[in-house]
């Protein structure tokens, strides 16, 4: 059985961004119940040289929209990185979901050999669609998603594996 590029991307991003949004709901409720200033969680990080929660969520959403746009052969939408609340981060996730769900299934499904060129750390990188998705976009997406989860779990938010995986 062959898995299409669409099935390996859009549904995966949809599921995991949905779980990230639900995790942010729990984090906001946690902060409210314990009278923690939301900014304390939004700016929390695992180590001083790592990005804070807000940036981890922004980057996860960026990898989802960027990967799907590149696979579909359309321009990647640019979002301003101005989110400062849990609600604004959930809105960014919602905007990302609306974008990726609106892309033509056929364009993504036929993208395994599509040429994808992007700049990484100032250097141009060339990929074909399938290696781009499987070896670059998904690992980066999961890294930032996992780091966001770990920041909140480390901060005492009561979330677990089921929250991370979400519903499918």
Automatic annotation (TrEMBL):
Protein name, per record: DUF1993 domain-containing protein
SUPFAM superfamilies: DinB/YfiT-like putative metalloenzymes (SSF109854)
InterPro entries reported for this sequence: DinB/YfiT-like (IPR034660), DUF1993 (IPR018531)
Top-level lineage group: Bacteria
Pfam families: DUF1993
């Amino acid at each position: 059985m062959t898995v299409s590029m669409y099935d390996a991307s859009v549904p995966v991003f949809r599921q995991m961004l949905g779980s990230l949004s639900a995790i942010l709901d729990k984090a906001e409720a946690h902060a409210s119940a314990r009278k923690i200033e939301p900014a304390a969680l939004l700016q929390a990080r695992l180590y001083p040289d790592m990005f804070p929660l807000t940036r981890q969520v922004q980057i996860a959403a960026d990898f989802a929209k960027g990967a799907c746009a590149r696979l579909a052969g359309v321009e990647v939408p640019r979002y301003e990185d101005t989110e400062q609340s849990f609600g604004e981060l959930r809105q960014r996730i919602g905007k990302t979901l609306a974008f990726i769900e609106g892309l033509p299934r056929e364009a993504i499904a036929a993208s395994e050999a599509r040429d994808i060129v992007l700049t990484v750390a100032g250097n141009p990188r060339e990929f074909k669609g399938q290696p781009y998705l499987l070896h670059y976009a998904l690992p980066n997406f999961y890294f930032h998603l996992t780091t966001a989860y770990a920041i909140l779990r480390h901060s005492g938010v009561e979330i677990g594996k089921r929250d991370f995986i979400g519903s499918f």
